[in-house]
Design goal:
By secondary structure, this protein is mainly alpha-helical. Helix content is about 90%, strand content about 0%. The chain has one domain.
């Protein structure tokens, strides 16, 4: 939704990216609270509705290993962010690091999209829509490679 909105109102691109970031992080906080307080009654049916049990279990394992970095990567990439927000609440991740990682990850994604649309216009928007998942996964590979290189 952000890309077409930026195309329609280029003069408000950064405002729209900021608004999208804040709304997404608020939604992430809602998912976190569901995981923390309402897993059995609300979150579990949502996971079943999306047929996401395997993704949820994988997310839980990743949290145990990588902590807050999981939220950042999920916020930036095409990985389903909502699964990770619920998982973060369920495992009891500290709220401030969760919010900061969400803000940075989601903000980076949305401001990058707004900037690319400002630079490339409608032609780039069409290509971006077609290839957004590939761009996201390439970013994940680059981030993980950089992390492994720096820690190795």
């Amino acid at each position: 939704m952000l890309a077409p909105m930026v195309l329609a109102r280029r003069d408000r691109a950064w405002f729209l990216a900021g608004l999208t970031t804040v709304a997404s992080v608020a939604g992430g906080l809602f998912g976190y609270l569901i995981g923390k307080f309402l897993f059995g009654t609300v979150a579990e049916p949502i996971i079943e509705f999306y047929d996401a049990r395997l993704a949820f279990e994988r997310a839980r394992t990743w949290f145990e290993i990588y902590g807050v970095w999981v939220v950042f990567v999920a916020g930036f990439t095409p990985i389903p962010y909502k699964i990770f927000t619920i998982s973060a609440g369920l495992i009891g991740m500290s709220l401030v690091p969760f919010l900061l990682a969400s803000l940075v990850g989601r903000g980076a994604r949305f401001f990058l999209v707004a900037g690319l649309i400002l630079l490339g216009g409608e032609a780039l928007e069409t290509r971006l829509r077609r290839h957004v998942d590939v761009v996201g996964w390439v970013t994940v590979v680059v981030l993980i490679s950089g992390f492994l290189w720096l820690s190795g």
